[in-house]
Amino acid sequence: KGCLKEWIDEKKRKNEIILLDGSFSYELKKAVDFEDHPGWTAYANFSSPEEVQRVHETYIHIGCDMITTNTYHHSIDLLSPLYGQQVVREQFKNAVDTAHRARSALQKEGNVKILMSIGSYATKLRDGSEYTGAYEVTEDP
C-alpha cells in the first residue's frame, strides 16, 4: 500500500495533478438540513449516513484522488450531550467506514486515498473562529 507521502511524492515527480474533494457541506446540504444542528455536517453521520456515502461517491465519480471523512465538526464534547459519548465515538468510526464503503462501492480501493478530517477545538463554538484562530482555550475548573 505504501505511505501517503510516497504516493504524493510520486505524483509530484510525474508532474501529475492531485484532485481533492471540494466543499463536503455544499454537496451534503442538498439532501440533509444540518444548519441548525450543533454538530453541523456531523449531524448527517447520525441521521443520514447514506447521504454522506453518496457525497463521497459523487466526488470519487468525478475523479477525486483523495476524499476526506465527514468528521471536521464531529466533536465529542459538543455531541456527547445529545447522543452520549459512546454513541458519538462509534459514529466517528462509522463516518470513516462510510468513506471506505464509498470507495469500495465504486471499486477504487487502490486509486482513492481517504484522509481524516479533524476540526480544531473552535469548531465546537460554531462561530467561524476555527478559520481565524480568534478563540481561547481554557481549562474547566
TrEMBL record:
Superkingdom of the organism of origin: Eukaryota
GO molecular function annotation: metal ion binding; S-adenosylmethionine-homocysteine S-methyltransferase activity
Example GO BP: methylation
Signal peptide: none
Gene3D superfamilies named in the record: Homocysteine-binding-like domain (3.20.20.330)
Pfam family, one: S-methyl_trans
Keywords annotated in UniProt: Metal-binding, Methyltransferase, Transferase, Zinc
Domain Hcy-binding, residue spans: 6-141
Protein's pathway: Amino-acid biosynthesis; L-methionine biosynthesis via de novo pathway
Record protein name field: Hcy-binding domain-containing protein
